[in-house]
Amino acid sequence: MTLKLTTVGNSTGVVFPRELLERLRVGRGDLLHVLETPNGIELTAYDPEFAKQIEVAENVMREDRNVLRKLAE
Questions:
Q1: Rounded to whole angstroms, what are the CA distances from 53 to 29, 49, 60?
Q2: CA 48 to CA 69: how far, in whole Å?
């Protein structure tokens, strides 16, 4: 798919066709994450850094369940 750059105020923007937005599961106002890969640039709605943070939090909650329960009392 080819996307065209366009002027948006004093900046440059890209207009995404509806089909691409649906495939990315994003809409106006959502954030896309830019990842540099060996093959070029990848745009994704998935934030790998946030996913890592969630994984760490889930591990802490699982491992320290009793401590967290006591703190909640």
A1: 23, 6, 11
A2: 29
Q: What residues contact 59, with CB distance under 8 A and at least 6 apart?
A: none
Q: What is the tens place of the pLDDT at every residue in 7-61?
A: 999 999 999 999 999 998 899 888 888 888 899 998 888 777 888 888 888 888 8
DSSP calls for the chain: ----EEEETTEEEEPPPHHHHHHHT--TT---EEEEETTEEEEES--HHHHHHHHHHHHHHHHTHHHHHHHH-
Cα distances (Å, whole numbers) of residue 4 to 10, 40, 42, 47: 17, 17, 16, 25
| pTM score | 0.54
